[in-house]
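User: Can you model how copper (II) ion sits in this protein?
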Amino acid sequence: MSFQNPANRILRMSVAGMEGMYAKMFDPPTESPATPDLVNATSPVPEVMAAAGYQDKNPPRLPHTIQRQLMHGMTLPTWDGQDMEFFLFRDPDGVGAAKTGSFPAPTNRVPRGAIFHCETAGSGPPPHTIHWHGQEPTPMNDGVGHCSMEIGHYIYQWQANFIGSYFYHCHRNTVQHFEFGLYGFTIIDPPDAFFASIARTNADGTVVLNNTPIGNGRPEPGFPLGRRRTAANLAAFPQFGQDNFNLLTTPDPEANNPDLPAWLKFATDPHAHTVPYDVEALWVVDDRDINWSNLGKNARATYPQHGSIPGVNDNFHGNAGGGIGPDDFFAFNDFRSTHFYVTGVPVPDDSGTLRIPGEGEIPHGIAIPPELMSGVAGVQVSINAEVNQNIFLRVLDAAYNNARITFPVDIVIIEWDGRALGVPPFGAYNEPVLVPAGTPMEWSVARRFGCLIRSAVPVNSHATVEFIDTLRRDVRFTARIPINIGAGQDIQTYAISGRVTNAAGAPLAGVTVQVGSMSLGGSPPTAAVTDALGTYNVSGLTSGMYEVMPAVMGGATVTPPAMNVTITTNGAVGVDFVVAMPVGAGDHAVSGVVLERIGRPLAGVSMKLVQVAGPVNATVLSDAAGKFSFTGLANGMYILVPTLAGYRFLPQRMSVRVRGRNIAMPAFKGRAVRGR
Ligand SMILES: [Cu+2]
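Assistant: Here's the modeled complex, given as structure tokens:
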């Protein structure tokens, strides 16, 4: 990659009295104003996620308010083993990858009509913004750099007005911060979604869930646990079985139903002009140029070097903090993509080497962990469905270049850049579009569409996404995304394995090694306990980017503390850790097992160990055999509590006294709550 900078010195003219505007552009203040016209938030999503175990604060630290922090300088491995720089959102109230930072950011779902609040803190310099793309909030809350303000601490506020698929992203140095990963989906659901999962609200603001899956709406005839719905006008496409064409002003037909609680009644019909769907999929297509990323990873890389008169004689040859020679200018338009992603899942080249032009496929059976989907389970990346099911697919083009997408089946586009086609109040101006199988569609960055797919015959094929260089028009890479309708599920999974030893190289048995997905597509958090040889093996993982981390107690240090691992068409071996115990630390273990009532092991249970009058407060996951283990414990009294969304446990907790030896606990028994 070479770039010859023209030796021109770019002069900027100052507008008398407005010099401060330029100064702000180059070195903006980190502002923390109060939100103008702040009203009470009403979104139930944070409370529902907390009750389901997808938040580590219950109730959330601010009522009905999500948390997002923006970070830069995070490195994740590529599928071919290089280091790629990412800028990520993290949710400090989240669990697993949501807390660490995920690519793309955790999806943000909100029911229509709700007042949405997001509390955020940018760590500067440089500051960031959050732009809520497509929501049209007030200017302060729109988060467009230079037009609102760059954030320190701020509570963004807007109302979710139109059901559909949107996104949020940093709008500071957008070409860079967005491309480096500071973005995520926003989905507006029907007004009764999330509320329908609430059985009651306690005085402290926590909620108790009922059996309705998170994201479903309220009960319908024949569907006591509700269904997922989205806005559509399918009068011309009766095969999708749309059952509600009411105007948005139609009064709620259930307003007088004595069986419905108050929070499931609305001023107008919550299902007006919506269609139910059986399967939901979410594709984010993205490309990265590793050379571009390595050259421009300074988060201020597009700022020029200040001259003596900012805005007049700044030096565009050098980035702030970088060199100022004529060849030091970093050119953001010199982008030649090398790495490709679908919903955070890296697409490896079929040849196994980095090759341009190249071609590759993501595996079957990839779903999005619910903690990265506002608690909604089962949202797919690669599509697995049955014949005659309504499949609703949302697509966001986050690629710097263009994406040409071709489907093997007919699709009907029902929403475009967020807004549902043919639905009031825009019903007179547009309508859904049939796109026949094999029709290429070219999308540019930030564009979105939502489409319905339904097939009466089995389909075992894939959609193709061609990443096209916008300037040169060459196809850099073709990604294939499996679409499997009624043709059987062919899920490919892989393993991560390694060894845990002490500083002398002796094996450490009974150490829980946890694996959490750092990409939106990937497997839910899981774990394995090391055996007598110190080895662990976490299997059943779909391809994606993962953080691998041993859980140790009592002041032990782990080297490295965590490892980021990307798995594609192979697992990863040799992910090894060394654990050093401080002198005088405890060296006892508490271990046990979690079983379902029928005796099957229960994996992925979050086991929390808290020391009574002591510092230990640790959480590990049960592994595929249902086993868990805490090592490095000093003598003392501990309390052990299991949690898993959708399960109740007997006993609810156990206390254990460690006194001079390892403890094996009696089994916890988990029971699924009906309907999950
Ligand atoms: Cu940013």
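A couple of observations from the model: Confidence is low (pLDDT under 50) at residues 1-15, 17-26. Residues 70, 128, 170, 172, 177, 182 surround copper (II) ion (CB under 6 Å).
User: Helpful, thanks.
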